């Protein structure tokens, strides 16, 4: 019998108010200086995922539908668009994040669908339809940090991701708060492990670990 996963300590990073305030500042910076803002987990993490997707050319086609959960400034999808992917959707529960991502996308003359969507809302998720690739870099982490009942929110998140993923689809998740084994255990009811995307490791006290974990799931 697997051990109970210990919930993370709540943080303002798990609240909508924090992200609305952050993206309000980033919109101002973008307007004043052209600065697109922070890339969550740095550009290396983003580039590793894009390279992995590109290598799956027999399975992931340029016109397959791809959605980025908690898209923030939208840069992940902008880079995918530059690689030739054409059916791209970004969602975020922060209207300010979507305002920023739309502005950047418009200025770069790209065609990406950005929408304000709450991942905790089953009707809003159902209205999106299904996708070949569902990508998340940091949103599951943020949900896990919600100060109130993060466990229930994680359960809703997992169910809604399952709902939006095609039966033959791939769910790509990058986390800095959960280990590979914890992620596999948390998603085990609805998902099975496809592969782990290698990330840089460090050695401390005789043990090897990673700063981030990037994992690919399939539907059960």
Short description:
It comes from Anopheles arabiensis. The chain is 40% helix and 25% strand. The protein is an alpha/beta fold and 220 residues long.
Q: What does this protein look like?
A:
- With about 220 residues, the chain is α/β, with parallel strands linked by helices.
- It has one domain (about 10-215): Vaccinia Virus protein VP39 (Rossmann fold, 3-Layer(aba) Sandwich), CATH 3.40.50.
- Helices cover about 40% and strands about 25% of the residues.
- The protein is built from eight helices and nine strands.
- It has helices at about 15-35, 40-55, 75-80, 95-105, 120-130, 140-145, 150-165, 180-185, and strands at about 65-70, 85-90, 115, 130-135, 165-175, 190-195, 200-205, 205-210, 215-220.
- The chain has a seven-stranded mixed β-sheet, sandwiched between helices. A two-stranded antiparallel ribbon has the order 7-8.
- Strand 7 (about 200-205) and strand 8 (about 205-210) form a beta hairpin.
- Helix 5 (about 120-130) runs parallel beside helix 7 (about 150-165).
- The two termini are about 20 Å apart.
Main pleated-sheet profile: 7 strands, mixed
Structurally, how many domains make up the residues?
Answer: 1
**Please, what is the average pLDDT?**
91
Assign an overall shape.
globular
Helix content: 40-55%
Q: What structural class should be given to the helix and strand makeup?
A: alpha/beta
Proportion in β-strands: 25-35%
Helix run count: 8
Just name the CATH architecture: 3-Layer(aba) Sandwich
């Amino acid at each position: 019998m697997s051990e109970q996963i210990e919930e993370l300590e709540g943080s303002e990073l798990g609240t909508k108010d924090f992200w609305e305030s952050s993206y309000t500042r980033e919109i101002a910076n973008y307007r004043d200086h052209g600065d697109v803002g922070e890339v969550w987990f740095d550009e290396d993490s983003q580039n590793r995922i894009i390279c992995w997707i590109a290598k799956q050319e027999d399975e992931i086609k340029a016109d397959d539908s791809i959605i980025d959960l908690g898209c923030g400034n939208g840069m992940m999808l902008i880079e995918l668009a530059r690689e030739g992917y054409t059916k791209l959707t970004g969602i975020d529960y922060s209207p300010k994040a979507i305002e920023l991502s739309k502005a950047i996308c418009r200025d770069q003359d790209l065609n990406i669908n950005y929408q304000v969507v709450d991942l905790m809302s089953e009707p809003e998720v159902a209205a999106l339809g299904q996708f070949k690739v569902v990508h998340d870099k940091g949103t599951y982490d943020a949900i896990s940090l919600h100060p109130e009942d993060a466990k229930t929110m994680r359960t809703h998140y997992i169910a809604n991701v399952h709902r939006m993923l095609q039966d033959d689809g791939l769910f790509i998740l990058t986390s800095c708060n959960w280990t590979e084994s914890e992620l596999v255990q948390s998603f085990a009811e609805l998902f099975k492990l496809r592969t782990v995307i290698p990330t840089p490791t460090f050695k401390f006290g005789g043990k090897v670990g990673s700063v981030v974990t990037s994992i690919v799931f399939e539907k059960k």
